[in-house]
UniProtKB/TrEMBL annotation:
Transmembrane found in the keyword field: yes
Record's keyword terms, sorted: Membrane, Transmembrane, Transmembrane helix
Naturally occurring in which organism (per UniProt): Corynebacterium bovis DSM 20582 = CIP 54.80
Compositionally skewed regions (Basic and acidic residues) per UniProt: 14-25
Keyword check for Electron transport: no
Official protein name in the record: Chemotaxis methyl-accepting receptor HlyB-like 4HB MCP domain-containing protein
Bilayer-spanning residue ranges: 58-80, 233-253, 265-287, 462-481
Pro residues bias: start-end ranges: 1-10
Compositional bias annotation for Low complexity: 400-425
Region annotation Disordered: where it falls in the sequence: 1-25, 396-425
């Protein structure tokens, strides 16, 4: 019997390395090593969604949104307030001084022409006081031109072209006045032609350019002032949105945590509400003050300037007609219309200025000037031209000085009692009227600048307060959220 066959020996192998291959779901070599670098970043949206779906994650997101909304609202208000302060600084230090320089330029040129024409119709070349007044007016005009040029930012603008035109033509005017004086000293009749040509240059070119410059700059003052009184709606809406979000978050957090009030969120809501109310109150006050500023300062200042300019031009026309020895019915009618226009403007301004008595005195002087003018016309009709000249340039009857307040109209005495010197004193009445208009303009301009400076200070206060409240509100939200997050840890 043969022995059983021994089975062949199995080969000895190590443990299989593919015993768990059935568990693999990815294909071998299916992911590039380079793409694996971006795997964490690609997984962020999924992880963030999972995080937000949890209560602590949602609480963190809500608090972050609240902090960003509060800071954005405060930042927008601070930026808007800073921009408004910059605009106010530009108005106070740039636009308004430029407008005032333009006004002074117009007035100085008008005064120079009025004095030059008035002094010419006197015997000789005028008095020393006339020469001093003429020189002073030219100096003021030159200084005003320089200030106006320095205040213009764009060298190619229309404003700069107007200033350059005045600078170029003013020497021509001065030269013509000098020629007129030289000829007048030697009683050369050609002097009248020179003075007429000089006045025509002043009225048609210099004053026209100065008037346009003043109109343009004054319009910018009004536009900027109106713009600065408008409420800042965009930052106000941001503050309101932040307050609404805080209130809604307070209710949501109460439902989430079963607590009625969160001290941090409540404090933040109170602070942002105070910031909103403060800003709204400041906007209302600024709007009301802006309307009041326009009524009490800007509009009266513009009217007073126009009145003074009209008075200067009326005086120049009156004197120039005497130089030409022509006083037509049309010129008499024009003079009367200007007097009525000035008187009506002053009457309207009486209740808008600080010193109504000064307006009343100015109206009395205006009536005195009208009386003197009527006396001059009477003498011209009687053929007494030298006496008419003396009345037109008279300072008074010698009993009172130019600043005597006891006779504001200069008509206390009978015109005939003073002979040809003219007790009515045309020059005296006009000079005092011009000084009082200057005083009214100075007071009204001070009111306007005080209002602008006060607006600038108010804007600065609002900025500081809103910044402080928003920073503390953001901190309160963070402090109010932290204890609730710790409950989940």
């Amino acid at each position: 019997m043969s022995a059983p066959e021994t089975p062949p020996a199995r080969p000895v192998h190590g443990p299989r390395d593919d015993f768990d291959r059935w568990m693999d779901t990815d294909r071998a070599g299916g992911r590039s090593p380079r793409l694996s670098i971006f795997a964490p970043a690609l997984a962020l949206p999924r992880r963030f969604t999972e995080f937000v779906s949890t209560s602590p994650g949602l609480l963190w997101v809500v608090s972050t949104v609240l902090v960003l909304a509060i800071l954005a609202a405060g930042g927008a208000m601070a930026a808007s307030s800073q921009s408004r302060q910059a605009d106010l600084n530009k108005l106070v230090n740039g636009t308004e001084p430029l407008s005032y320089a333009s006004q002074e330029l117009f007035n100085s040129l008008s005064v120079a022409d009025s004095v030059a024409t008035t002094s010419f119709i006197q015997d000789g070349a005028g008095t020393g006081a006339d020469d001093a007044a003429y020189t002073h007016a030219l100096q003021n005009a030159t200084q005003s031109v320089i200030r106006a040029a320095n205040g213009i930012e764009d060298p190619s603008s229309r404003d700069m072209r107007l200033v350059l035109e005045i600078q170029q033509k003013l020497p021509d005017y001065v030269s013509l006045i000098a020629e007129a004086k030289v000829n007048n000293r030697v009683s050369n009749p050609v002097g009248g032609a020179y003075i007429a040509q000089a006045s025509e240059l002043m009225q048609n070119d210099l004053l026209t350019a100065a008037s346009e410059l003043y109109t343009r700059t004054n319009a910018r003052v009004g536009e900027q002032q109106v713009g600065l009184t408008r409420p800042m709606w965009f930052p106000l809406s941001g503050l309101l949105a932040a307050v609404v979000m805080l209130v809604l978050a307070q209710f949501w957090l109460a439902a989430l945590t079963n607590r009625r009030l969160n001290a941090g969120y409540g404090t933040a809501t109170i602070l942002m509400t105070l910031a909103l109310l403060w800003t709204v109150g400041s906007a209302v006050v600024t709007w009301h003050a802006g309307a009041n500023g326009l009524t009490r300062a800007a509009e009266p200042l513009e009217t007073l300037t126009s009145v003074r300019i009209e008075a200067q031009q009326t005086r120049t026309t009156e004197a120039l007609s005497l130089v030409r020895r022509e006083y037509s019915d049309a010129e008499r009618t024009s003079f009367s219309e200007h007097i009525r226009s000035i008187d009506a403007a002053l009457d309207d301004l009486r209740d808008t200025v600080h010193d109504p008595a000064l307006v009343d005195s100015s109206r009395e002087l205006l009536r005195g000037w009208d009386t003197s003018h009527a006396r001059t016309l009477t003498l011209i009709r009687d053929g007494d031209y030298p006496a008419a000249i003396r009345v037109a340039v008279a300072e008074g009857n010698g009993a009172t000085g130019p600043d005597d307040a006891t006779d504001p109209a200069g008509t206390a005495a009978d015109p005939g009692a003073a002979g040809t010197t003219g007790a009515t004193g045309t020059t005296r009445n006009f000079a005092r009227l011009d000084r009082q208009l200057q005083q009214l303009i100075a007071e009204t301009r001070k009111d306007l600048r005080d209002y602008l400076i006060e607006s600038r200070v108010s804007a600065e206060r609002v900025t500081n307060l809103v910044v402080v409240f928003t920073v503390f509100s953001a901190l309160c939200v963070i402090l109010g959220t932290r204890p609730r997050l710790q409950e989940y840890m």
